[in-house]
User: Fold this.
Amino acid sequence: MAEKPQAVKVLYCPVCSLPAEYCEFGPEFEKCKPWLINNAPELYPHLLKEADEKEAEKVSEQLQSVGDTSSAKQEEVKRLPGGKIKKKEKQEVVIEKVVRNRRKCITIVKGLDLFGIKLTDASKKLGKKFATGASVVKGPTDKEQIDVQGDIAYDIVEFITETWPAVPETAIFFIEDGKKVRAA
Assistant:
């Protein structure tokens, strides 16, 4: 009878979370080198030739001190699979006017939620102020936005800054002809 196949034990790098054989292809190979020298020297013999033990200790101490500061940065910067960095969204309100049926306009307000404003409350206030229909809708990027019926794009800036003082006028932008333009 044939023997049962045994499970393969894979050694993972704690720095980049890839298997040790693939560290050289990861985004942080320079940070992985000290760990690889200590824990997987048979996989990368050329690393041993490049750096003797003293240099490896110096590098690992430097990287550990860098690692301590990067742990604080990890809270504000998220990493996606493959080592890509997810950027924090800018706090800005984007106002866009969309024309439908040649005469009808819809004003779209995006980004109010980044200032801690509840979109449902904001849509009610906008609807009452401008005597139009206003609703919270998921946009094409699956983020919620407010759709207000009518062309109120230029009146809405003053209303937003008066109603919600947390939103500065410098953070409000219009999209005109596909370009982002400051409202101020």
